[in-house]
Amino acid sequence: MSLIVKPHGDFEPNTTAESAKVNDQLNTIYADHNGNITDANVAALANIQQSKIANLTANLATVTDRKGWEQIATITAANTGLLDFTTGLTAVNDEYMVTLTNIVPAVDASNLIFRASVAGVFSQGASDYAWIRIGGDLTTVTSPGYLATSNDTGFVLAAGCGNDVGEALCGEIHFWAPAGTTAVKMFRWEFVYINSSASIATIRGVGHFRNSAAIDGIRFLFPATTIASGTFALYGLKK
């Protein structure tokens, strides 16, 4: 006999015939009006409970996991020159994300740069990266604009980051299929921060790394200085 699990956790038989079987078992349980419990009563009740448990287990087994972000690693910067994630980028996940929380450069008005590595070597050739950035940063905060470059040594994620008291950068960058070898690697990012003029700035950007090889590492840096403080967390999205 099989039972259907209702939304509120109740059970009901699949067919009229099975409903009759359940009624027979219930009648057996309550047939003794003198209040006596017989072996037949206990056996009938046990059968019903076992059926419920078996069908509940079967229903739970068919529930598939929903996609969800799983944290892979976290790094807290402390006057860090090069902040690298060099493990965890595999074919296990479809998409990856790095969250940046309260990132502060050691020197005011610094640009945050991103690079990727192939076979353990971080690429920084003059034409290894192409990117587009939209929004307001140090120079265009009052008149948001569009900035693009087709040849660069890395992505300029955000420009003119401030380091005065209370100034910091927060946001995230996404990328896909780092272990793939058939397509160039695409990236998307979005940040909000206080720039060196003490004005709030917001940036959205996209870019690609001109290499179809698998990437095995990612790097964040302020080229002229260190990352004074802040937390970087790498996540993977389950397939």
Describe the structure.
There is one protein chain. By secondary structure, the chain is α+β, with helices and mostly antiparallel strands. It has 2 helices and 15 strands. The strands form 3 sheets. It has an 8-stranded antiparallel β-sheet, with no helix packed on it. Strands 4, 6, 7, 10 and 14 form a 5-stranded antiparallel β-sheet that branches. Helix 1 runs antiparallel to helix 2. The longest helix has 23 residues. The radius of gyration is 29 Å and the shape is elongated.
Distance between the termini: 35 Å
Any idea what the radius of gyration is? 29 Å
Given helix and strand content, the structural type is alpha+beta
Total strand segments? 15
What is the general shape? elongated
Indicate the low-confidence ranges by residue numbers: 1-6
What spatial order of strands do you see in the largest sheet? 3-15-5-11-12-13-8-9
| Helix-strand sequence | EEHHEEEEEEEEEEEEE
Average of the residue pLDDT scores: 84
Strand percent estimate: over 45%
